[in-house]
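User: Structure tokens for both sequences below?

Assistant:
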Amino acid sequence: MADGFSRRKFLAGSSAALGALAAGGSASALLAACGSSGTNSTAGGKVGSTKADAGISTATPKRGGNLVVATEAEDNGFNPTIASWDVTGLMYGAAIFDTLVTIDVNGKPQPFLAQSVTPNADATQFTITLRPGVKFHDGTAVDAAAVVQSLMANVQSPQNGPALLNVAGVTAGGPMTVLVSCKEPWPAFPTYLSGAIGTVMAPAMLVDPKAGNLKPVGSGPFVFKEWVPNDHLTVVRNPNYWQQGKPYLDSVTFKPIPDHQSRANALKAGDVDIMHTDDSQDVQQFTANSSFVSITDSNNSATEREVHFYMINTAKPPFDDLRVRQALAHATDQSRIHSIIDVVNTPITSPFSSNSPYYTAVDYPTYDLAKAKALLTAYQNDKGTLPTFQLSTVTDAKDLQRTTLVQAMWKEAGINCQVQQVEQSQYIVQALLGNYDVREWRQFAASDPDENYVWWSPLTASPIGKLALNFARNKDPQIGAMLEKGRTSLNQADRVSAYQEIGKRFAADVPYIWLDQTVWLVTAKPNVENFNNPTLPDGSPALKMTAGFINVGQIWRS
């Protein structure tokens, strides 16, 4: 399941993975019933459960050892201005780099590598004060000049720059102070510093960005050692990390295993120590298995949850015709997909969680085969033909099963499409360039809805063949106006009404065929301690696992 820049959030993903994004799949009270009550005296939490204390340890941390982490995909590098940075990339990044900001347990941005981020009265300028004495892995100082260079690399990036269209300037206000000025009020800006955009790269890494993409230099808890694409990434402990005492592990090895069943088998066989997945059957299986410690993000209400859908290239015929998009929605039986494949997920008609203040009921075109056929007949009468196209997903057996099921549903309405599978990093590149018809996707987890500005704005919907972060290339001026209202208003009630209106416009435009709200599972051997207990520098709790993202900096092995 591609996450195209996020399995949390590629651009502004909080400390839980951007975005996020792409295909494939990517909670429910049902999960609580699946848990075992068995405990592990050393793990500091419930084994085989998804209760609040699972993955949290109060024991004294133990130093040493290696951890093998199985991820759902491989990324295409370490420089977030040019690499895809899906959930795997975000986990790689959190091991090697620090972000200026992180997200706390309540979904609010808090200083991390920065000592403080302070807005002026109208949120048009932000003063970033850096922590003294922090060094990159090559020994150079993390100072204002380095942070300005890293932020400007994002501003000037064809990939990330569109997310920073509101930035008017980035300058050093002193040796350890950075000033970011905005063209208009932007109260949500600090949240953007919690993901790829706020990832601080060493100046040496930016001399040659392409070379730096292969050999990262950050200030994070681990130092890059070796990367063999599609096999493993190994990082080793940073002995000079600024958070005293961390990390606890000597090394971490990340192993990309795209097929969810192979990933699960690797954990059961002991070949890996911990893994993430959004496969419903795996969620059910592992939360009921007392041999593993399991957590899900099903009860995380601090942020918007990642949602799963089919994304339509609205700039491309026949999908520039609303009738075709509506027909696809009416031909999609959510309940059937839910009952057969995504049994633990929650069906949706909006990108916002039902318990979110930004949620409102919408008139989304739900399953109605007769309406789908009537819309297609009208289209055929006008165009002389029925639509044919490619329906794509990533290289995972469960994603193929789901997409083949959808293909069969659409055929019942008279729609002919061919299914294709694409490796995830290339899948994301294709979405950026608009080289697709309809594809499975996951995205839109956010601690602030403004984080989705870049994915939804008409300003970021470039023509096919040019990089566009509005992957669906949906150019609704009403959505554009509401995004501006939500971005610039300092009044929360105005922001709420703006995003509720956006939910309604998606139901009218149908750039997305909504499926469900994804449930992510992270499951580990019992001797993997503290994997769901991220903290702020002062020790207070940070955002727990969301959309499959964990930070290995706080983990140890018993």
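Moving on to the next sequence.
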Amino acid sequence: MHALDAAFVRLERVFDRAFGAAANPLRHLGTLGYLMFWLLALSGLYLFIRFDTSIDGAYASIGRLSDAEWWFGGVLRSLHRYASDAFVVVVALHLLRELAAGRFRGFRAFSWISGVPLLWLLYASGVIGYWLVWDARAQFSALATAEWFHALGIGAEPMVRNFLGAEAVPNRMFSLFVFLHIGLPLALLAGMWIHVQRLGRPRTLSPRPLLAGFTAMLLALALALPAASEVPWDSARVPVSVAQDWFLLFWQPLMYATSPLALWAILGGATAALVVLPWRARRPALPAAVVSPQNCNGCGRCVDDCPYQAVLLAPHATKRGAFQAVVMAERCAACGICAGACPSSTPFRADADLVSGIDLPGLTVNALRARLEAALGKLAGDGRVVLFGCEGGPALGALADARTAALTLPCLAMLPPSFIEYALRSGAQGVLLAGCAPGECRYRQGLEITAERLAGAREPHLRASVPRARLWQAGDRVQDAAGLRESLAGFRTALKALGAPPPTRPKRARVAS
């Protein structure tokens, strides 16, 4: 998957240059899926109001929308058709992107597995929607579906007899199709809600430029290429040739090219493979964050900041009426963002061993302070910079030298803002932050949380007394060590213009930042 992941990253960065990272559609595939759903729901609501839900009137009512009311009803019908195809495309790309990036195991397994049934609901909703048009394509699709189910002996034979022969299809069966076309999307919406439940602050709304751009594109397509019906459904004969929708109905030609049982094997095998993938590709469990009840005041900042809702508040272990954080280890991503949110994670505390309210065993706040102090002790010369980066960003090892202390964290949001002030008071002339590229945070919200803390919009915030000119963040286009080296050189030039600050060494005090 590494080659596929690298290909996606390269393509995303090409799109970044064209659209900007904030409006890059490849970085918002999940939200685009929600956009397509709501476009389908809104357009479908109007179509249902104007639709004749009977065998005799269905085809004609669709025709009136496309002909007599082409300027509104016809456009909405075409928008409904193209949004359903776009829904399939963005969902398929979303699945492929998550697969390539390895976002299906461990703490992400729930979201991955809960997404698999949504694929079946999406296709079932779309296929039955085609049947309601009641034309030759609907008849071909219904017959193919009946044959497919009959291969497993799921009582499809009576349905086939209803679709073919001199007698008309009963209206009760058509009413069932209408019911399913409403009920299945509602089940899909419920599944989409479940799909994001393990995510903190899930994003389901596309950025406005992307929302407007995709809606305008689909409307333009609806105007340029209006959706058209085939000839009416005729139970007396089998359709021989119909225009195919290769997004929603691709499986029907595949079935006739192979066999109904082969199609069951292909789709059933693919579904099973997706479901068991998190266990087949399991890695050693990550060290979950741990809580120190003696140092946790129950403020809830770690609960708010956790990207995967792995932290919650519960009654305190020893203090009556108080609360403390509790970590659900199976959900923990070991990103350390919770440690960066804790008010006790300040290096200015005089404790010899700094114990935070919540901490990451693999890299405790105390160990981070020790690493920072050791690195600061080795800095010499003019232009002394402390470089903080994250594992998902550019590699920092090659940049460490006599004037540069480089510290890598699991996520940049693990860094409490007080560490920036501590570094500047301890001999560093500047602090450079180098996180993931925009939209590539492996923990979803690390860059956003860091930016809010530095701007004073999120606790713990960087104090106003810290000189902002001595704090730089690597630019959006810094995506490798070479770009970071260039940014570091530019930072040193800016620091030289500021002049060297007086050297200071802070005294640790028992004060939270």
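User: Anything stand out in the second?

Assistant: The first strand starts at residue 290 and ends at 291.
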